[in-house]
Design goal:
It contains two helices and five strands, in the order E-E-H-H-E-E-E. The chain is an alpha+beta fold and about 90 residues long.
């Protein structure tokens, strides 16, 4: 089984510029472990100190928010596309 992970521009500095990763993860925990192994600097930007998904990180599977698919309990299917989207604040006042 293969899952494709899209890495957005703000996180690519932690992946050496890599924008897409394929892995054989069956769930979110395995996906994060695979990303940790390949890109150790990325992990702290995905999970907090207790191992939970960072509050300002949104995860989409095939353009659907993973929270509405079962969250951590969602079982990836072959060919799923995962998009990691960090919330970015800022702008002009």
């Amino acid at each position: 089984m293969q899952v494709t992970v899209q890495i957005p521009s703000p996180l690519r500095r932690h992946t050496g510029g890599t924008s897409k990763v394929c892995c054989a993860a069956t769930n979110l925990k395995e996906l994060f472990l695979a990303l940790d192994e390949k890109f150790p600097a990325l992990g702290p930007h995905l999970r907090d100190e207790s191992g939970e998904v960072r509050r300002f990180l949104n995860i989409y599977v095939n353009e659907e928010d993973i929270r509405f698919l079962g969250g951590d309990g969602y079982a990836f299917r072959d060919g799923d596309e995962v998009l990691l989207v960090p919330s970015i604040a800022g702008g002009k006042r």
